[in-house]
Amino acid sequence: MSGDLNQAKILRNKVNRAASKLKYNFYQTQIAAMHESGSHDWWKHMKTIMGLKTNGKSCMHGLANKTTDGDCGLLANTMNDFFVSVCDHLLRLNKSHKVFDVNEELPDQYMISVCTTFKAFESVKANKATGPDNIPAWVLRNYANVINSLREGVLLSMEWKMANVIPLPKTSPPVSIEKYIKPISLTPIAAKVFESIIMKWVDETLEGEIDAKQFGGISGTSTTDVLVELVHMWYKATDKLNSYVRVVMLDFSKAFDPINNHLLLDKLQSYGLPVHIFRWVATFLLDRAQRVKIGNEYSHSGHPNGGVPQRKLSGPNCFLVYINDLRTTVPLYKYVDDSTLFEICDRNDVSVIQESVDIAARWTEQNDMNINSEKSKEIIISFAQDGNYRSTIPNIKIDGEGYSTRLPCQTIRCDHFSGSDMEQTCG
């Protein structure tokens, strides 16, 4: 027996040494060089190492098998019809809008120089995804003359406003088009460069105008900033005896898609946007077209009545302006379209957060948007060991046209800085 044990130890040590050597070799050949690579190559390599798929084509084929008998072309058409239908209830922007009557000469300060354009194109990654024109980034240089031809009231070419919509599954595999697919718009690179220059001027005008509690799409802010600020306030509040925090997280349905372009332009104008910049932004929104791309299959073109495209530079900027006038009586923190309301209560206080939820609900109706009650949540945070007070707190409801939806609520009972337990869930 002792001989067998000694032999086992010898073999074990050999295996351990071999494993260590293999790990070292793997690091040297596969990992070490990645320290010098860009983020694109790093993620591509990591996905290869982990055996992950690098695209969602298989997901889309699975959805096609489920919904269109495997026909990806038909699936693309079905998706595009749905994406366009989200804003069918809106009045489409047209050239009769007053902004297109402006014939003033473009001021020199808004002339785009060859140097500015060259730098803008230089900053575009050579492997950046192309739009419907299929012109790669490395081809585009010295484009200032083309861009400056727009200065005398010429509208943007339709080719610049056509977008390839890439369906991004929210789950794998996606169960349905309506709830589990997110549209990502890819426009021509030349249009993106022009857009980036215009949006810098828009940002300059809007500086100091956007809600201080908006942390999304603002230079120098991030999700970390808003989370640190919120958690700090909640911890500080619940340090007090008998205090609890009531949090409501609102989710807007298809937030970027149902934006009323007429309302958006009115809001932009109220911030004193220079008339030529205002006109250019309106031109981005006028007569937009899109088609869904799945693999090598394309849908027919569709023309949405409103909305702003996601993943375009103008999209988040326009949305920040659109939601900027949403204010409530309790603190409201925003990260682009994610909105979090909260109030700090004593057990003997009367909760007033329902009033703010009602204000938000009225705002969404007035601005042609909808609150997604399925994804909106309420959370109650407390350090109290006795949870009986929960029964005295009225449920949050979202009232709409003839219906009332009660938000699902989760109560978190925390042990000071050492963890937390989910006390109950009520629907």
From TrEMBL:
<feature type="domain" description="Reverse transcriptase">
    <location>
        <begin position="149"/>
        <end position="405"/>
    </location>
</feature>
<dbReference type="Pfam" id="PF00078">
    <property type="entry name" value="RVT_1"/>
</dbReference>
<dbReference type="InterPro" id="IPR043502">
    <property type="entry name" value="DNA/RNA_pol_sf"/>
</dbReference>
<dbReference type="InterPro" id="IPR000477">
    <property type="entry name" value="RT_dom"/>
</dbReference>
<protein>
    <recommendedName>
        <fullName>Reverse transcriptase domain-containing protein</fullName>
    </recommendedName>
</protein>
